[in-house]
Design a protein that fits this description.
The chain is mainly beta. The chain has no helices and eleven strands.
C-alpha cells in the first residue's frame, strides 16, 4: 500500500507560479511511474505529467514549457513546478503512483488561477 500526501495548492493570479509536492510513504518499492493528473471543474480527469524511476519525464502539450515535473528520491517526493499559470489550469490536481500496474492516488489539492 502506497500513501501519497500532497501540498502546495492554493489561489494564484494569472501568470503566477506554484509548486506542488507529493510525498510517498508505505510500500514504495516497485513503483515504476509517478506523476500528476488534474480534473478541471465539470470536466474529466486528464494526465498532466509523468516521471519514471529512471528519471525520464513527460508533460502534455497543453502545459509544455510551463510545467516541470521532478523527483527527490532521498525524500520520496515528486514535485510539479507550475509557471505562467492560466485560468484554464484551474483544477484539482492529483498525485499518482503506479506499482505493478495498480495506481495509488493522493487526496487531491485545489489549484485556482484567478484575479
Amino acid at each position: 500500500q502506497v500513501q501519497l500526501v500532497e501540498s502546495g495548492g492554493g489561489l494564484v493570479q494569472p501568470g503566477g507560479s506554484l509548486r506542488l509536492s507529493c510525498a510517498a510513504s508505505g510500500s514504495i518499492f516497485s513503483i515504476n511511474v509517478m506523476g500528476w493528473y488534474r480534473q478541471p471543474p465539470g470536466n474529466q480527469r486528464e494526465l498532466v505529467a509523468t516521471i519514471t524511476n529512471g528519471g525520464s519525464t513527460n508533460v502534455v502539450d497543453s502545459v509544455k514549457g510551463r510545467f516541470t515535473i521532478s523527483r527527490d528520491n532521498a525524500k520520496n517526493t515528486v514535485y510539479l513546478q507550475m509557471n505562467s499559470l492560466k485560468p484554464e489550469d484551474t483544477a484539482v490536481y492529483y498525485c499518482y503512483a503506479v506499482k505493478r500496474n495498480t495506481p495509488s492516488w493522493g487526496q487531491g489539492t485545489q489549484v485556482t488561477v484567478s484575479s
